[in-house]
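Lecture 7 notes: from sequence to structure.

We start with a single chain of 143 residues. Read the sequence below before looking at the structure.
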Amino acid sequence: MAVQGSSDVLVDELYETTHQLRGFVEARLRKGGASVARLRAMRMLAHAEQPLRMRDLSEMTGVAARTTTSIVDGLERDGLVERVRHPHDRRAFLVRLTDEGVRCHREAEEVDRLALAEATAALGAEDRELLRDLLARIRTATS
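Now the structure, written as tokens:
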């Protein structure tokens, strides 16, 4: 049972499950030098049609600008992203994946996919559909 951090044990269990799932995936990604945060940033860059401004990347990943800068600094240090001058604003830079970043992103996505498949393997199709429906109801109630 989850440690009570709210007035609703269901919410506590949902939070604990999410936290545990993230740790499960994080441990597998770490073996290849990745992390959930780095994967999220690479995922946004991989799916973008053009290089992104840091502010846009921060908004898309849902993390603070300072945290995004730290993530991008690490990715750049590892040769996975590069900063390029903004074509219309000489003071600004855009971020894009390098060829090595594209390769590492694909590998990390596969690790993520396999980890999540392992974590949810005990759920059949009917269970998965029910859980998705229940979670959708919560999202609808809070939107």
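Strands lie at 52-53, 81-85, 93-97. Keep this in mind for problem set 3.
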